[in-house]
Amino acid sequence: MLARRLPTVLPPLEPAEALEVARIHSAAGHPPRGGLTRRRPFRAPHHTASVPALVGGGSRRPHPGEVTLAHRGVLFLDELGEWQPRALDALRQPLEERAVLISRQPRSLTFPADLLLVACSNPCPCGLPPAGCRCSDVQRARYRRRLSAPLLDRFDLRLLVTAPEPGDESGPPSAAVAERVAEAVARQRSRYRAAGWERNARVPAGALDRLVPLHPPVDRAWRDLVERRRLTGRGAATIRRVARTLADLDGSPEVAEAHLARAADLRQEVP
Predict the structure, then answer these.
(1) How buried is 1 (Cβ within 10 angstroms: 0-12 exposed, 13-18 middle, 19+ buried)?
(2) Average pLDDT over the chain, rounded to whole?
(3) Other CB atoms closer than 10 Å to residue 234's CB: what's the count?
(4) What CATH number is associated with residue 146?
(5) Which of 113, 158, 172, 253 could form a disulfide with 94 if both were Cys (CB 3.0 to 4.6 A apart)?
(6) SS3 24
């Protein structure tokens, strides 16, 4: 349910983006009904999907896969632990380069794949709470090995989601969240107007010191966090970008230690 709400809170497609998405879906045989839409695509393939169905390809006429059909939108992978490891690992290159290169004689094709990947998975095959789980240690270890460390490292946010309590209050409506997101996006566009990027997520690691500066106390806290948790280079840069995004959502011109701590909490070492 949370994943399906994302298109309602993300900023609408710009006219050029809407035209790009329409061309992709038309080429794949799924022309948009009712003309161009500003709503971002949402794709949720079944976990039995093959590698070509997921990333594109085909023996005769190469066709775009789900990562391309989700271009400029959201790709949701439910039951991530049930996917074939080969299919999941095939996502690593498209996520890194935001494109898929299909090589077939006598030519090569490049499909766009600039998307937001969201996934969820149970911690074990049965999916029951720990108190009721009957899976053996071997079954749980085999299940978790389907998710490679390089793939998990590419998820900017990783959270353990628990069942809601009866007294929990409902969250804010999508319209209220969409307003905050639109304001944060406007701040990022203004900040990177001369840099060639529009989002914090696009800032290269080598440009973080220049474009996402941290005050000395916050920088020390970030470096201590990287060392304490033994983060990869990708993980360290991700936490810094997420902290900058949290500051944008708060309307803060600077990244505070509270934003850094929250960004670290949003990158949990999930089982």
Answers:
(1) exposed
(2) 90
(3) 14
(4) 3.40.50.300
(5) 113
(6) helix
User: What is d(CA 208, CA 213) in angstroms, rounded to the nearest whole number?
Assistant: 7
Please check whether residue 227 is in contact with residue 207, taking contact to mean a CB–CB distance below 8 angstroms.
no
How far apart, in whole angstroms, are the C-alpha atoms of residue 128 and residue 218? 40
Q: Tokens for 237?
A: 């840069």
Do 178 and 149 fall within a single domain?
no
CA distance 28 to 21: 11
CA separation, residue 78 to residues 1, 2, 56, 103, 249 (Å): 11, 12, 19, 29, 28
In DSSP terms, 57 is beta-bridged to 63
pTM of this prediction exceeds 0.85: yes
Q: Return the SS3 of 79.
A: coil
Residue 162 covered by a domain = no
Residue 174 exposed, middle or buried by CB count within 10 Å (0-12, 13-18, 19+)? middle
Kindly report the CA angle at 121 between 53 and 232, in degrees rounded to 5? 90
Amino acid found at 161: V
- pLDDT 10s digits, 136-152: 888 888 888 888 888 88
Per-residue confidence (pLDDT) for residue 271, from 0 to 100: 61
Range of the domain at 236: 174-265
HSE at residue 176, side-chain half, CA atoms within 13 A, is: 3
Which of 153, 184, 200 is the last residue before a domain boundary? 153
